[in-house]
Amino acid sequence: MLEPTDLTARAISELRTRFGTEAAVTGRAPGRVNLIGEHTDYNAGLVLPVALPHATYAAAAPRTDGVIRITSAQEPEPFTGHVDELGPEIEGWAAYVAGVLWTLREAGLVSGGLDMHLESSVPLGAGLSSSASVECATAVAALGAAGRTLDADLQRAIVDAGIRAETEVADAPTGGMDQSVAVFAEAGGALLIDFDSGEHHSVPLALGERTILVTDTRVKHQLTDGGYASRRAQCEKAAADLGLSSLREADLEQVETLGDEVVRRRARHIVTETARVEPTVTALGEGDWASISELFAASHASMRDDFEISVVELDLAVSTAVEAGADGARMTGGGFGGSIVSILPSEAVETVTAAIDRAFAEAGHNPPGHLIATPSAGASYTAC
Ligand code: ADP
Ligand code: MG
């Protein structure tokens, strides 16, 4: 089980060791697991993510000479630059980190240099949004170091800066769910986000004796590979062919009139998946696990068959979890690898994780990783 260790102290001591600098501020921003509503964010739809207790931690100290130095325990190469020379051409992992400093500077929110060190307990590339987690941890720490107060306007600005870093610098055309939950999540709840109205609110989860389990198949997805971008383009084509501004406005009857068979299936996933989100909110609020079972099964089938973003490891983890006693299980995140999410009686966690481990070993897959997704709070910073 991958534990959600608090890495604040380690970030502070590594900043000292690597740069000889005392931290002025520490920031934390969580990874996330999406309970339902996959690929619906860029279709003006609904999503329902939960912030993980696993997070990225940043320790930072401001500099007066404009120099920016950033290291990460998760990446061997440090980033060095100057605040006035940041731009969209930043490469590698620094695209997410220095990229967000650039977009914050563009927004007029930071102007100085800094030393920063990052530690993370979010597995990278597992579909649990280590990317938004590292963007938002960087942003809160940099804004804290710049003396800014984390109010609602600043939270909104962090989300926007993270989205711009991810889409314009890292070239991953993701939709905004990850940064929103990394910033706005409330402990104990899930965040219902409506990408049509832009509104979001925390919804209660009547988990009781139930646990949200995440299983990382360890199949590395790569959002910059093109699968994600092609799904996005197919959704845009479907909306355009129907004369709609987004698939949020489409119904199933309209979707079935689409001439291109592939585009039709992509659109069908978006329409049916969006329709599953509100019933899931209701079921989670009432502890209605029979409904969760059906909704998760339908969601997974739709991603596997209509949207075609699943892989054999995800399908195996989902079917094994359900056979071993989970109420419901589905792949989560962008797809093409990454993780599944299951909801199960807390007493069944060991049985279910052992069953998945065994199934993976028998099929010759790499051992999966498991973590418990206790619903956690969004990004914050603390002055040292
Ligand atoms: P996911 O967000 O699902 O984990 P992505 O491919 O979107 O996967 O983002 C993973 C990338 O984000 C990593 O390859 C790395 O470039 C960057 N990243 C995430 N966390 C960190 C970190 N703690 N330190 C440095 N880079 C990170
Ligand atoms: Mg990501």
Question: And the CATH topology of the largest domain?
Answer: Ribosomal Protein S5, domain 2
| Poorly predicted parts | none
Helix fraction bin: 40-55%
- Please, how many helices? 11
What is the β-strand count? 13
Mean pLDDT: 96
How does the SSE layout of this entry go?
Blueprint (H helix, E strand, L loop, with lengths): L7 H12 L5 E10 L11 E2 L1 E15 L3 E6 L2 E8 L11 H13 L6 E8 L9 H16 L6 H18 L7 H8 L4 E6 L5 E5 L5 E7 L10 H15 L10 H4 L5 H26 L2 H18 L5 H12 L4 E5 L6 E7 L3 H15 L5 E4 L7 E4 L1
Parallel strand pairs: 4-6
Antiparallel strand pairs: 1-3, 1-13, 2-7, 3-6, 4-5, 7-8, 9-11, 9-12, 10-11
Helix pairs in contact: 2-3, 2-4, 3-4, 3-5, 4-5, 6-8, 8-9, 10-11
The site of magnesium ion (MG) has 3 residues, from loops.
Structure report:
- Residues 96-185 form the GHMP kinase N-terminal domain.
- This is Galactokinase.
- The chain has 384 residues and is α+β, with helices and mostly antiparallel strands.
- It folds into two domains: 4-202 and 376-383, Ribosomal Protein S5, domain 2 (2-Layer Sandwich); 204-372, GHMP kinase, C-terminal domain (Alpha-Beta Plaits).
- It has eleven helices and 13 strands.
- The strands form three sheets. The chain has a six-stranded mixed β-sheet, sandwiched between helices.
- The mean pLDDT is 96.
- The site of magnesium ion (MG) has 3 residues, from loops.
Key features?
384 residues, alpha+beta, Ribosomal Protein S5, domain 2, Alpha-Beta Plaits, 2 domains, 4-stranded antiparallel beta sheet, 13 strands, globular, binds adenosine-5'-diphosphate, binds magnesium ion
